[in-house]
Amino acid sequence: MTTTTFRKLAFATLAAPLTLGLAGCDSAPEGGAATSEPIAPIEAPAGQQWTDIVNVSESDGYILGNPDAPIKVIEYASLTCPACAAFAANGAEQLKSEYVSTGRVSFELRNQIHGPHDLALATMVRCGAKESFHPLSDQVWTNLQQVLQPIFDNAEAVEQSLTLPEDQRLVQLAEIGGFYDFFAARGLSTDQARQCLADADKYKQIAENSTTQSNELDVTGTPTFFINGRKLDANSWTQIEPELQRAGAR
């Protein structure tokens, strides 16, 4: 990823105000799904709960729950997106506790990257154990303004960080944003975070996955949801829950 690309990513995002409306994706309606027969709950492996089980998919998404669940939910989300934060606060917990917990539904979270500070955050939530990905993402969304404010307040310093060598760019950006302290308070050490952010091959792969998958699946904004491969014209829990029930989660 070149310096020019980083600069474009930075200013496309940093120019937007923090008070962005809770706009959702620009995906077009895909038509209603036929109602399926109810699916019986599926027991988790002995001594485990589905909501504690995480697997990384071939698409580098983090699947919470039964990886073989008959109903598969995928969310493309940005860690800097107010609408994604709204879903995390007003839908994700219900999805996990009422549906993922039954083994009938899995919930895969994939990152769409909206700028270099988003890329830094996406790299950091991947830095620890795979089981920490969903909780750390939720923590970013719960504290979104706190996380983003230093980036907006120091836009010039952020731009300058993007001119550094590749293995220093996100390391410095995270310093400017106060990301190390935020994540250290949630179990990710600063040394570990710095090591992850210095891995340019890893963070460039995250960005490339975002671009490639967004183009292939026509994901034009976040959050964008899929159920069993069908893109939904929905981004709120009140819209998504009925789709789950039509798919058999009832």
Any overview of this molecule?
It is a single chain. This protein is of the alpha+beta class and 250 residues long. The chain has helices at residues 3-14, 82-89, 92-99, 116-125, 133-142, 144-153, 155-161, 166-177, 179-184, 190-197, 200-217, 237-246; strands spanning 54-56, 62-64, 71-77, 105-111, 224-227, 230-231. A six-stranded mixed beta sheet has the order 1-2-4-3-5-6, covered by helices on one side. Strand 1 (54-56) and strand 2 form a beta hairpin. The longest helix is centred in the C-terminal third of the chain and has 18 residues, at 200-217. The protein starts with a helix and ends with a helix.
Shape: elongated
State the end-to-end distance. Answer: 45 Å
> Main sheet?
6 strands, mixed
**Could you tell me the radius of gyration in angstroms?**
18 Å
Average predicted confidence as pLDDT = 90
